């Protein structure tokens, strides 16, 4: 991080957005094609977002040692440009935050960068399942073996009061598991931050209780990449959930 004119600028290694960091810069409403590609040639760096046809919808060009970036062909003063240190090139990500309409917000002493418009809490509210089984409401039937599950089954229930439940079952292996979580959640942009999480675990065949209401230290963050109102389904972290 560097300071200039009273503002803070965050820098990351140039090669990171080509893999891990790219997932933090999803283009909203673009489904599987949300992530940017990176083209690094000499001192020039280009990040491109494309639509489903392969046509660019946003292009950012940067030059090492220059504080001028090109955004969709237009030059923009970004105050602090890429620099080289220790043989690595670092790029300012504040520009990407601005391009995608993101802002910073502090929640529980953690700074989150998120889209300015929050996903509808009313649309998120309710039960979401990867199959016809609602593990959160019927976990006793799952434990007893009365219901048939897929190899991996997930269920979420988001309540209007800010609480949530998660059920995850893994079956058909030598180490079957059933995880039940409860906690609170907050929507920031298109992200759902789950916190104050308590977890109960069953394992084995048949399921036997391993532990109950174990507190998890770190929050879990889910990204909403797609929402289909017609079919009543939502995509959280790459997985489709259906709303019965």
Report on this structure.
- The chain is mainly beta and 244 residues long.
- It has two domains: 2-100, Copper amine oxidase-like, N-terminal domain (Copper Amine Oxidase, Chain A, domain 1), CATH 3.30.457.10; 121-242, Lipocalin, CATH 2.40.128.
- It has three helices and 21 strands.
- Strands 13, 14, 15, 16, 17, 18, 19, 20 and 21 form a nine-stranded antiparallel sheet that branches. A five-stranded antiparallel sheet has the order 4-5-6-7-8, with no helix packed on it.
- A hairpin with a 6-residue loop joins strand 15 and strand 16.
- The chain is elongated, with a radius of gyration of 21 Å.
Task: Note the main attributes of this structure.
Lipocalin, 3 helices, five-stranded antiparallel sheet, 52% strand, mainly beta, 8% helix, Copper Amine Oxidase, Chain A, domain 1, single chain, 244 residues
Characterize this entry briefly.
Helix content is 8%, strand content 52%.
Q: What is the helix fraction of residues, given as a range?
A: under 10%
Portion in strands:
over 45%
Total number of helices = 3
- Rounded radius of gyration (Å): 21 Å
CATH topology of the largest domain: Lipocalin
The overall average pLDDT, rounded, is: 86
CATH class of the largest domain: Mainly Beta
CATH architecture of the largest domain: Beta Barrel
Order of helices and strands: EEEEEEEEEEHEEHEHEEEEEEEE
Low-pLDDT ranges: none
Note the gap between the termini: 46 Å
By secondary-structure content and strand pairing, the structural class works out as mainly beta
The total number of structural domains is 2
Q: What is the general shape?
A: elongated
The biggest beta sheet is recorded as:
9 strands, antiparallel
The count of strands amounts to 21
